[in-house]
Design brief:
The chain is α+β, with helices and mostly antiparallel strands. The protein is about 50% helix and about 5% strand. It starts with 9 loop residues before the first helix and ends in a 10-residue tail after the last strand.
């Protein structure tokens, strides 16, 4: 994700982050117990691993993160996977939800991408939970626009997004990205594609839609 643009001052992004965390905590509070063990859009993670991961940055100090990365032989992906699985076992679903709510205004930012990337982290992981579990939640347009305005091809490799040869076209707001064969869908579903996710069948339209659809 890019840095804060002139159109989206840092104060606006921070307000959006706090609101997103509080709203997602309310959603997670209402999830039936069995949903916590259903697969998320994050490959290999259930809902509970995703929610555990969402609060890692609030709970782990920088020295602890460094120690965990060493344990994971220098791999950030291996570190986050191990910590998510461990924390998902250690904490109850109520505790995992409370970590998010109680840290709504926490200033954590990912190593790359700044404060906009922090909003992306919350929004996308929230969708990783709500989309596959059938929770009908629309991310507010203002938050989506902050993230869509910051879509950056440089981040695609990090997230495993392959969007060559297609143009993403939102059908619920005025946004397009890329060039090529049109892939049309809701803006929040298209945002997921830029983060390397696939979405359930029927949510996207166009000749190349199957490339980005869960089988």
């Amino acid at each position: 994700m890019g840095n804060v643009s002139h159109a989206h001052p840092e104060s606006e992004v921070r307000t959006a982050i706090a609101a997103e965390r509080r709203e997602l905590a309310a959603v997670f509070d209402d999830l039936p117990a069995e949903k916590w063990d259903e697969p998320s859009l994050c490959s290999g993670w259930r809902v509970r691993e995703v929610v555990a991961h969402m609060s890692l940055g609030f709970r782990y100090s920088i020295p602890r993160v460094a120690k965990e990365i060493v344990k994971a032989r220098g791999s950030l992906n291996r570190m986050t996977d191990r910590c998510a699985r461990k924390d998902a076992l250690e904490f109850s679903t109520g505790e995992l939800t409370a970590f998010l709510r109680d840290n709504a205004t926490h200033p954590w930012k990912p190593p790359v991408g700044g404060i906009v990337a922090a909003l992306g982290h919350d929004v996308v992981h929230g969708l990783d939970v709500t989309v596959p579990t059938g929770v009908d939640r629309a991310v507010p347009e203002g938050r989506l626009r902050i993230l869509l305005d910051a879509v950056d091809p440089k981040s695609f490799k990090f997230f495993g997004a392959r969007l060559d040869g297609v143009q993403l076209r939102a059908d619920d707001l005025d946004w397009t990205f890329g060039s090529g064969s049109p892939v049309t869908g809701a803006a929040q579903d298209l945002l997921l594609l830029t983060f390397g996710r696939k979405v359930p069948k029927g949510r996207l339209h166009g000749p190349e839609a199957d490339r980005f659809t869960l089988t």
